[in-house]
């Protein structure tokens, strides 16, 4: 971010020992970032192939599938952005999903070596640590003199409540290391004489960010755009902004050309390809931030463990603010203290930071305001902006994630200023107490994990190949969707262990079919999948008529299913599945099954 030259460059090192001390602090920060990352994910490290994230096992299964699928496309020369392995016969447009293509390709050797669950855990852990390290490098090399101040700001951002909540299986949102890199390279475009090289670098980085976290890239671009506009319009910065504008625009044009060339096919698929959709399958009112959530504490924190956590988020993976009142008060005090001692140039930066925090905080409240769990009729700005293309595909609650880096930077600025000025002992003690009271309750606690049902021997031993032709269709019951992720877990195992391909109906993905042309999770249910879902949820076996049997046969023919499989243990991501009711329902529809290894199997005759 733009700062006064004195802050950007900092004083020259006084002596080699000071440089050594600085490198020692760097090492401590790296180790602290890694230790916190392992601490947060420690429940999974106990046994990655058995443990699952309690509150979001469905997303974990999805990302494990994406890693296995990405490696498979790399070794088989297939399209990584569109697949017919799931949702047969229509397929799935992964360009409008979170395909994490770069991760899948880079980590493909690890996936083949140790399997998707371990690769998922490695990426999740590295995401958290790399986010802290990237922010620390940006702060300590560009924005503040004190490496301690940089460390506090960076570690807060990386392990802020929003990041920790998204560590519940979101490999896209925990890739927060992309944001400081984008900020650094965006402001590098101001440098005279380097616009071509800097534009190419930023263009490549934008393409990488799009393939890992497109929504996060969009939010970063909006936040940077708002910051630059407000900063440039400040009287103290207008001349500097005007002088840098030609070089900045040239670099930005190069960025657009490079990123556009690299993303031409993904963008075509996203906006005009098959199985695309517009908008989102999630309710923007439900997935908006409660105003009271900004002053609340998250569940996975010391305060949450002490019983101060709340359930104001739409789900445990979306605690995007939850800063707590002490931190909000400290942030205001920091801003005022910085403002009072700032010159006009620094005030331009503070003014722009405040604008970003306020605008994104208010937008995160969604179409209508909610307070302490109660919905009001007060319309919010997102009610208008949320109708715009691209914006209508974003979840408003996640806009609050932009506020955390602003807070982290203000904390770093304040600590840097405190360490560079002599103050009374009582003042130093008061500031120390303020930081401890605000930040200590937010220290993260490990994610909740549990054991998940094992992949059946029918799959791990490759027995399925005796009942399904190469590339044929196998379906578990209940059919695979977000709440029944078994089918994609089995498929991920088969792909990563090079057993060959089997396809499945349905699956966990975003696709067309929602109201008003919007997207939805999974395909529109068909009679067979609806009957199995009813049995799994309620434990009731439906009444089967001749009409029911005709509909089921039509569904199986539409999917070209060769084998229907029920394991002894079905994983339900949100509730316990009544396996006995599912078996009795499948038997009523398909006849008596045969026992193969550790599954019940129904063979479906092909016409």
Automatic annotation (TrEMBL):
Is Magnesium there in the keyword field? no
Q: Where are the transmembrane segments?
A: 25-45, 94-114, 120-139, 146-164, 218-236, 248-268, 321-338, 350-368, 388-415, 427-448
Q: Where is the DUF6311 domain?
A: 80-381
Q: Where is the signal peptide?
A: none
> Which InterPro entries does the record cross-reference, listed alphabetically?
DUF6311
Specify the superkingdom.
Answer: Bacteria
State if Calcium is listed as a keyword: no
User: Which named protein is this?
Assistant: DUF2079 domain-containing protein
Which lineage do the record's taxonomy fields give for this organism?
Bacteria, Bacillati, Actinomycetota, Actinomycetes, Micromonosporales
């Amino acid at each position: 971010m733009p700062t006064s030259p004195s802050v950007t460059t900092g004083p020259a090192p006084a002596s080699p020992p000071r440089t050594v001390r600085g490198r020692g602090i760097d090492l401590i920060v790296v180790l602290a970032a890694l230790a916190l990352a392992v601490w947060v994910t420690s429940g999974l490290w106990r046994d990655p192939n058995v443990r699952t994230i309690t509150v979001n096992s469905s997303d974990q299964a999805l990302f494990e599938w994406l890693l296995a699928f990405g490696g498979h496309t790399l070794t088989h020369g297939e399209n990584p952005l569109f697949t017919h392995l799931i949702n047969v016969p229509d397929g799935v447009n992964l360009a409008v999903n979170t395909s994490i293509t770069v991760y899948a390709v880079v980590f493909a050797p690890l996936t083949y070596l140790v399997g998707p669950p371990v690769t998922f855990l490695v990426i999740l852990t590295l995401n958290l640590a790399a986010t802290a390290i990237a922010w620390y490098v940006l702060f300590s090399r560009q924005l503040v003199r004190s490496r301690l101040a940089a460390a506090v700001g960076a570690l807060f951002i990386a392990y802020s409540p929003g990041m920790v909540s998204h560590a519940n299986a979101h490999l896209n949102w925990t890739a927060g290391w992309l944001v400081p890199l984008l900020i650094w390279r965006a402001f590098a475009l101001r440098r005279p004489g380097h616009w071509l090289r800097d534009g190419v670098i930023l263009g490549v980085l934008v393409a990488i960010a799009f393939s890992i976290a497109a929504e996060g890239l969009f939010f970063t671009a909006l936040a940077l755009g708002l910051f630059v506009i407000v900063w440039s319009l400040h009287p103290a910065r207008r001349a500097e902004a005007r002088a840098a504008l030609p070089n900045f625009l040239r670099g930005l044009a190069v960025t657009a050309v490079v990123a556009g060339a690299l993303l031409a096919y993904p963008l075509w698929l996203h906006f005009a390809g098959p199985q695309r959709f517009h908008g989102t399958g999630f309710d923007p009112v439900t997935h908006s931030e409660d105003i009271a959530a900004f002053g609340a504490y998250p569940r996975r924190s010391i305060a949450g463990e002490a019983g101060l956590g709340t359930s104001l988020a739409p789900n445990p993976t979306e605690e995007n603010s939850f800063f707590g009142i002490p931190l909000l008060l400290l942030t205001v005090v920091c801003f005022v203290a910085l403002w009072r001692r700032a010159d006009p140039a620094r005030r331009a930066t503070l003014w722009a930071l405040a604008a970003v925090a306020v605008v994104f905080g208010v937008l995160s409240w969604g179409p209508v305001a909610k307070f302490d769990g109660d919905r009001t009729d007060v319309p919010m700005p997102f009610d208008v902006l949320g109708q715009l293309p691209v914006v209508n595909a974003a979840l408003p609650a996640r806009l609050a994630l932009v506020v955390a880096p602003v807070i982290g930077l203000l904390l770093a600025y304040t600590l840097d200023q405190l360490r560079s000025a002599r103050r009374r002992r009582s003042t130093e003690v008061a500031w120390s107490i303020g930081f401890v009271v605000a930040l200590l309750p937010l220290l993260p606690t490990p994610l909740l994990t549990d054991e998940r049902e094992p992949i059946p021997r029918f799959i791990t031993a490759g027995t399925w190949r005796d009942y399904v032709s190469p590339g044929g269709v196998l379906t578990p019951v209940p059919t695979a969707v977000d709440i029944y992720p078994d089918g994609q877990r089995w498929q991920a195992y088969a792909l990563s262990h090079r057993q060959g391909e089997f396809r499945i109906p349905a699956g966990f993905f975003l696709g067309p079919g929602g109201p008003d042309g919007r997207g939805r999770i999974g395909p529109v249910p068909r009679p067979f999948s609806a009957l199995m879902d009813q049995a799994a949820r309620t434990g009731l076996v439906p009444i089967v008529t001749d009409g029911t049997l005709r509909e089921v046969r039509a569904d199986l023919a539409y999917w070209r299913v060769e084998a229907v499989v029920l394991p002894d243990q079905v994983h339900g991501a949100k509730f316990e599945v009544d396996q006995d009711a599912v078996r009795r329902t499948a038997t009523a529809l398909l006849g008596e099954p045969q026992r193969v290894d550790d599954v019940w199997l129904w063979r479906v005759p092909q016409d």
